[in-house]
Structure of D-alanyl-lipoteichoic acid acyltransferase DltB, MBOAT superfamily:
Amino acid sequence: MQFTSLVFILFFSVFFAVYWWIIGKNLKAQNVFLLLGSYVFYAYWDWRLLILLIGSSAIIYYLGLKISRSENSGKKLWLNLGLIFSVGTLLYFKYFNFFIQSFTDLFGIKNNLTLNIILPLGISFYTFRMVSYLLDIKNTKLKAETDALAFFNYIAFFPSMTSGPIDKGGLLLPQLKKERVFTLENGSDAARQILLGAFKKLVVANTISPVTEKIFQGYEHLSGSTIAFGAILFLFQMYADFSGYSDMAIGFAKLLGFKTTKNFAFPLFAQNIADYWRKWHISLTSWLTEYVFTPLVIAFRDYDKKGLMLAVFLNFVIIGFWHGANWTFIVYGCLQGLYYVPLVVNNQINKKKKLSKTIPTFKELGNIIYTMALVCFALILFVAPSLKDAFGMYGKIFSLSFFSVPQFIKIKILGLIGIIILIDWINKDQEHGLEISRFKPVVRRAFYIFLILMIMYFGVFGDSSFIYQQF
């Protein structure tokens, strides 16, 4: 059930009406209805996998209580059981065939062990919610939830189920236990964010998608310049697709009275690769920073900068592997880790700079171009179906054909990219890209109408699946 599909629009319209206008005064009934709605949303994908979601929620709920009520050694035991169960489930469904295939390829064994495994919807996202919940209880950052209804809602919360954001229990659980009030101000802000997300996805991402597919599927017959151009296009496609989904997810959650985790902070203007990852998929990078990177830094603190480099590198290997069961994603993570080496050496990993208010300076523009070039270069690994294909594309880029005129240049696509850049730059200091209350009403309304007309006339409503849904 895609956010941009007619089925979801009908589902959410009915759900919204019942949620606020029929049972809005009764918190428990509202939470029961929210959980039922989340399970209907999930079952629409595959009802069989709903059993896994409910069962996993029940086990983690029980283990959370056991961690909370046990002494030190008991806490560790129950935590380890929870981590083995949650991470083990993820590894089985997402990586079992990858491990088997890699093992048999390594030793030249004929492979008859791969299984026809259906990847559960959103398993990478809700697994991380479960893991953070258990770790926060163990570290006394969070009390074990005794309200089963609130906990099951936290795991299955449908606006964030398909592709995040990855909300932690400390943010979402308290909101599930207090009265929620719908206000016109929050509703209007949510509608604006949903409108922007729909524009990004339906107009920008879906318009670019057919072009990038042609380029990367037929790269053997194309020039290096065309492949490089394809990587640039894919950057904007993925940004519009994923940030568009996040805008809609946050907006739909806001319409239900919830504040969820911000997932993007205008990464197209990042001044270096560390700045980019602070602004891109924030809920994932902040999760890994807290639960993986920081513990690694502490463990390697005696090794100074070498220890910091190792912590960064291992963190990005996990980020790469999280994205998919393919060696291309692992190498993608390794490359991102290597990008950090100059920043660590020069003590620039944590330096943050505020951008100019009007137009970027030459230095800022140079930093943006350099950072996005690094991002686009790595994205070849992200889109390639195998390392062989990735190296084939890199071979083309580093050939003389790189200096030819690229194919597939379309004014319409360049114009859409220009609109995205302009919207983001104007609102780079705001919470999201359509937070334009500071402009005059006539300007705001004209821009809303412009986006609606763009969606009506240029929106591609066919296959509306989101890139990050596969992760």
Observations:
- The chain has a mean pLDDT of 92.
